[in-house]
Each structure stands twice: as C-alpha cells, then as structure tokens.
Amino acid sequence: MDKRIIFHIDVNNAFLSWSAVKLLKDGYKIDIRTIPSIIGGDESKRHGIVLAKSPIAKKYGIKTAETLYAARKKCPNLKIYNPDYKWYYEQSLLFHNYLKQYSPNILKYSVDEAFIDLTGTKYIYDDYIKLAYKIKDDIKNLFGFTVNVGVANNMLCAKMASDFLKPDRVHTLFEDEVKTKMWPLPIEDLFMVGKSSSKVLRDLGINTIGELANADLGVLNKHFKNRAQFLLDSANGIDYSKVEKSISKTESISTTETLIKDISDKEELKDILFRQTDDVARQLRKKEKYCSVVAIIYKNNNFESYSKQIKLENVTNSTSEIYDVVLHLLDISFRGEAIRLIGVRLADLSANRVEQVSIFDSDEKKDSSNDEFQKIVDSLNDKFGGNVVVPAVMKKKNNS
Ligand SMILES: [Mg+2]
After folding, report:
1. How many angstroms is it from 148 CA to the middle of ligand 1?
2. What are the pLDDT digits (tens) for 328-384?
3. Buried b (16+ CB within 10 A) or exposed e, 1-35
4. pLDDT at position 42, please?
5. Which residues lie at CB < 5 A from ion ligand 1?
C-alpha cells in the first residue's frame, strides 16, 4: 500500500496577521507584523491580556496570555490593537473554504489550522511538494496572510513539520527524516506531550524526542502506564490516526475518539473527557445554543457500545458545568473495563437560556463578563488548538 500523504496547514500568527490584513485594507500605513505590536483584550476589564504578538514584540519577551500592563512594561512603545473576532471568523472561513478544493478528506483542526489527506491523489497532483508551495503562495496572494505547510506520511509528522521554521515555509517530515529532523528537538516540542509529561520525562533524563524514541518501554510504563507506548510511537513518528471528524446529528453535538491504546485507567479517561467536553461545549457556544442533556458514549475492547445520559434541570453551555456532569456520569457508568472509544454528546439543544442560578455553582452567579471571558478563552484555545487557557476551577478538577 502506498504511504499516506498528509498536509498540515497552519496560519502564521493568525490573530495578528489577520488584524494586519484588515488594517492595511482599511488604509492603515503600517504593517503591524513588522513593528512591536500585540492584539490585546479590553484593558478596562480585568481580563485585558495578550492574545497575539508580533515577532518584534516577542523579542521584547512579551508572552501570550500575560496582562497588557506587564507587556507594556517590557516594551514602552508597544502598539496594542483590539481583536476583531468577526473579521477573524471571516478569514478563517476563507482559509478553510479555499483548502476544501484539494480533497474531501479535510479536518478543520482549529480556526487557523487544517489537515488534508491527499493519499491516493498522485494521478491528480504528481508532485506533492509543488502542491504544498502552490497552496502556501495562493493563500498569501489571495488573502494577504501567510501559512506554513507541513508535508508528511501521517498527522503527527505533518503537524510537527508545519511547526518548523516560520513564517511562509513548506517543510517535509517523511518517515526517513524523523531521525534527522525530529529527534534533535526538545521533548516539549513533541505534539500531544503536555507540560506535566515533559517534566516527568526530563526528570528521567529524557530531554530530546530522540532520547524518548530510544527509551526503554518498561521504564516508561512505570510512569505513563497505558500512554507509554503512545509516547514511544509518537517520538518515532508513528501515528495511525485518520483525518476525519465524527458527524454530529442536527439536534446534538458530539465528539468521539478511538483511542490509540485501550484505556482502563479512570484518571486517563478524565483527561480525554475534559478535552472532549471543552470541544463540544465550545461548539455549542459557537452555535449560541444551550443543552439540557449530557451523555458519555463508550465502546469497550469487545466492541460493545453503551452510553449513559442525564437530563439537566437547567440548560447550560458552560464547559465547567458540563464537565461536572460528565465526571458524575463517568462515576456512575464506567465499568472499569478497557475502553477503545469514548465520547461526549450534548443533546436537547435550545436557543433559550433560562436565567437561573446554576445547580452546580450555586454561589457563583453567572454574569455577562464571564460570558465575555469565555469567548476570549474559546478564541485563544481555538487558535492554539488546545487548552491554552483553562479556568482555574477546571484545572483543579482535571488534575485531581
Ligand atoms: Mg497558527
């Protein structure tokens, strides 16, 4: 069988680039990508934080998610621009719609990232590298912002490749390049390896991806249990996941994940469910809807499927509230067996929000500023394709 061909296309510095394009379009004389500049939230509110920074602002040591006050102290002549989420949304649509022409197998990974599976199209595109350059240049010429394109035989390596030197580049990371291009990188750079795992690995004397690739599975097993093989595979550039997303029914939103290894550890399932909850809750908020049914979906290693759901007294679209319900569902329905597939489903969607004090956080009344904050959190998380910003309440629960 032919090797797979996967592209990962990633907009360089999406929020700042998109704002730069808008400003230039509106007649602004300066390209804010070339000066010390940031995109920042509203400073008058306590959530005024750095959402994106220009390369020069980065040189001043300005970091994403720090306060505008702290950023300004590092660079007094810093230019701060407000985010324009409506414009970002439009640019994101342009970007994703443009990519759809190349393959039906496309996964919108975040507002500014997509995977395309081009396997089996060699009769249409005789040279994949040429195609990658065409996509990169087309996007720049058509829309005014730049992208990196990673070309590889699987999603993991495509994602790693697009993260090499930026901006406006094409990189390959084929199977035979893993050793030279990926192994020298620090362990933190490995896709899907979080801060806590990196720290454990560093403590074990494993500092580079190459050192992890050659580590002893027995040792890794002691510290990472079922995740050990996954880490070892990742470091070796092995990834079998497919470019596809579960199709959700109209009146429900769901996400499921076939696990790379069967998992029977409840704590590990909690981590996966947290990610999934964040994903579906975000989709719910994007649709400006609320749900009143929350479900967990399982498939065990005998391919038996089952699910457990709860009807809520009040509708919600809050990640933390839904995650509380999910944890409760896990407690009452998980049989302790090896799980092959797990997912979260939100149903009974409605456009109405019943203004009642939540049954989960009875002393924390919802207010609009919390909604605003959640929006910024969503945008940030969308942009980085993960959980960059996790409200403290969930951090606590997720780690406990
Ligand atoms: Mg990006």
Report:
1. 8
2. 899 888 988 899 899 999 988 877 654 332 222 323 333 334 454 556 666 666 655
3. eeebbbbbbbbbbbbbbbbbbbbeeeeeeeebbee
4. 66
5. 10-11, 14, 112
The residue annotated as part of the active site, out of 43, 66, 113, 364, is 113
- Residue 379's pLDDT is 65
Instruction: State residue 381's pLDDT score.
Output: 62
Ligand 1 mean position, distance from CA 200 (Å): 28
Q: Is 321 a catalytic residue?
A: no
List, in order of start, the domains of the chain with CATH numbers: 1-174 (3.30.70.270), 183-235 (1.10.150.20), 252-399 (3.30.1490.100)
CA of 16 to the centre of ligand 1 (A): 10
Do 330 and 373 touch, CB atoms closer than 8 A? no
For residue 163, report the distance from its CA to the centre of ligand 1, in Å: 9
Residue 45 pLDDT: 58
Residue spans of the chain under pLDDT 70: 1, 42-47, 244-250, 352-400
